[in-house]
Amino acid sequence: MITCYLAPMEGITTYIYRNAYHRCFGGINRYFTPFIASKKMNSREINEILPEHNEGMTVVPQILTNRAEEFLQIAEQIAAFGYRTVNLNLGCPSGTVTARKRGAGFLGVPEQLDEFLYTIFEKSPLKISIKTRIGISSEEEWDRLLTIYRKYPIEELIIHPRLQQEQYKGTPHKSAYKKAQDVLRIPLCYNGDIHSPDAFAALVSDFPNVSRIMLGRGILKNPYLVHRLRGDMDTGPDKDTIKAFHDELFARYAEAMSGETPVLYKMKDLWTYLSQSFTNPEKYLKKIRKANTFADYKAAVGSLLREQELLEKQIDAT
Ligand SMILES: Cc1cc2nc3c(=O)[nH]c(=O)nc-3n(C[C@H](O)[C@H](O)[C@H](O)COP(=O)(O)O)c2cc1C
Fold it and tell me: Measured in whole angstroms, how far is the alpha carbon of residue 239 from the centre of its chain?
């Protein structure tokens, strides 16, 4: 059976999201926290890794830095909470991160990256997995990066085969994933645009031995995606479960945040994706986005849940 990970998504796949998802849907083998970027962890970052916030799940904390010393200091703190593995973010494409040569920006200075990896692999108290893009502006950069990755005992390499400059646009470069398969002898995980059973079928057709995938926006849009890919639909689809998932998220965010506005902000972010699970979502999404109070918000969500059906239901009916 294919091993499935939930991608780290800053601001979205928080510990609150992961817990609600795990309880309502399950099926994910490993969860990744959004990145931790400073050795002086703030309360949001600590909340992500506290063991009591991650019970019953396999969770890998993610670090974003280009300074070996800082990586090791953060890793020490993570190790103290009992984790075994940490993930290094070499994929974040956002301008503010890459301008400081962090995330995917680190791929543009391969010599420095190599030195950094040498130090952290020598001294880290934890095993290290890496989540990477394939370069900054040209697929040709990938060869050099693969030569570097070959040198280190990376626990697993999660490849989102896009360039930093592509952000989230265009089609993933599957040829780059193929090259990694040919060259590396470490476990690989494919990530990027597996948003439907068809996209998964195409991946398996290109790479029949693919055994690990990481799912991000596909799960946000359709929480049943992991079950659908495995052909294991005992667990759904049904609106009651989606409602239970939503209600738990809403209640936990309302407990954890002060005031209605930040909670509504979080929930609106979620609906940008989750509304795509429903038939005719546009006018409901507009109402959800317009809501400035919990009462308006609940009314908008209530009418979507009452009046529309899950698209997955239609797949089952065909
Ligand atoms: C809103 C958002 C936040 C993200 N935050 C992170 C992050 O904190 N760390 C990371 O490695 N990738 C992050 N990513 C990238 C995803 O983990 C994933 O690599 C990307 O979305 C491609 O996979 P998908 O097509 O399955 O979504 C983020 C993506 C999105 C859309």
Answer: 24
Are residues 73 and 208 both part of a single domain? yes
Q: Domain check: are 210 and 247 in the same one? A: no
> What is the average per-residue pLDDT within 10-20?
97
Short-list 175, 130, 177, CA closest to 154 = 130
Alpha carbons 256 and 259: distance in angstroms, whole number: 10
CA 183 to chain centre: 25
Domain count, the chain: 2
Q: Is the CB of 9 under 6 A from ligand 1?
A: yes
Top mutation candidate among 217, 219, 270, 271 for ligand 1, by most atoms within 8 Å of CB = 217
Instruction: Give the structural domain span for 163.
Output: 3-230
82 and 40 inside one domain: yes
Q: Of the candidates 256, 234, 247, which has an alpha carbon nearest to the alpha carbon of residue 274?
A: 247
Structure tokens at 154: 């990376």
Same domain for 174 and 49, yes or no, is: yes
Q: Which residue is it, tokens 């979620």?
A: 270
Report yes or no: 245 and 300 within 8 Å, Cβ to Cβ. Answer: no
- Output phi, psi for 317, to 5 deg: -75, -20
Of 199, 230, 261, the residue at which a domain comes to its end is 230
Is the model's pTM score more than 0.85? yes
Given this model, what pLDDT does residue 113 score? 98
Question: What is the identity of the amino acid at 28?
Answer: I
Q: Does 92 sit in the ligand 1 pocket, CB within 6 Å? A: yes
pLDDT at 109 over 70: yes
